[in-house]
What we know:
The complex is a heterodimer of chains A (217) and B (175). By secondary structure, chain A is of the alpha/beta class. Chain A has helices spanning 16-34, 79-90, 96-104, 115-120, 123-126, 142-154, 171-183, 203-216, and strands spanning 47-48, 59-64, 70-74, 160-165, 188-195. Chain B has 175 residues and is an alpha/beta fold.
Amino acid sequence: MARAKIKRGSTSVDMTPMCDVAFLLLTFFILAAQFKPSEAVEVNPPSSVSNKVAPEKDFLNVTISKDNKVYLMMDPKIKGAVLDELGKERNMSFSAQDKKNFENSDFIGVPFSQLKQFIALKPEQVKGMELPGIPVDSTNNELKAWISAAINAQMGEQLNFLIKGDDAVKYPTFKAVIDAFKANDQYKYNLVTNSKAVPEGSELYKKNMMEHNAEKK
Amino acid sequence: MAEMEVKQSSKKGPGVKKGKKLSTRVDLTPMVDLGFLLITFFIFTTTVSQPTAMNLNMPKDTKDPNLDMKVKNSGSLTLMLGKGNVIYYYYGDDPTKMQTTGYKAVRQIILDKKKSTPAADLFIIIKPDKDATYKNAVDILDEMDINDIGKYAMVDPTPDEYSLIQKTEQAGGVK
């Protein structure tokens, strides 16, 4: 009997759809990577072995740039309340437009005297501008007032204090920031750092290994 | 998309040679490979670069000397952070006996001190001076974590200690 002829199918698969998918995903990831909020102030933080992720909610971020200037950023959620509180404490009045500007601004990098003009600027205008930073000297410590306003605006809710400094920041500036926090009775901070591997064979490494082994058992 | 139908008109008149039929199919496998390779690369790089936070707890400033923590001389190691990534260290309470080291070698000094001292007495005092950088302070705090030191404090150097550091720096020509 004659065997039925089996049609010989081609073994080459059409790669076009797969290629499409691959490049679609690639485009997506490239774009998504760029959409990460750009740093308002460029800072290159030191690295530490800490593996705790920096808190992203209810934060007050004090950034120290490499020319020892202090900038303040905060959770957009608390901005409105902080400005109200600041107005009350420092006897300043802010219009509805000021408030809107403040909520749209990325960060604060000027003394109170220039605050209104500064927040009226658009982020594109701020870029590349020479900013004076927030004064932190012992005679005129405005950071203290900002922190106090933020604490009172939070009304007892937990607030995470982040300090992000550049490698080149001089210690006295860092100390001035710490002093501003201390003046408000705040003693717990999170220093933002890049992560780094724990050196092999060190005490912490052994401790982590022991904990790891204990978990396994 | 990569393939296009090519219709060959068979009748082109006499004397016109038939063009050789070439396949327009392109093998897309290498392109797909490259695409996925890049995707993998981007996924890995985006998740790794998350910033971490280091906890720092500072003590309350007290004016009352009676409330100051007492530190045993035998168990204390003072690290003074100076200009140009140099550490000056001394044991006990005699700053004149200070020695010089760097950020790489300081780990061994801390470990040796830890081994030779009972755990309850060990206390490391960190004194960053005016010329130290923030990186220096973070590095040394990190070193406390790495070496699992339970008790340490960060304070300012006394004027005597600072002038001693400055003298050493001048003598050593540290800028």
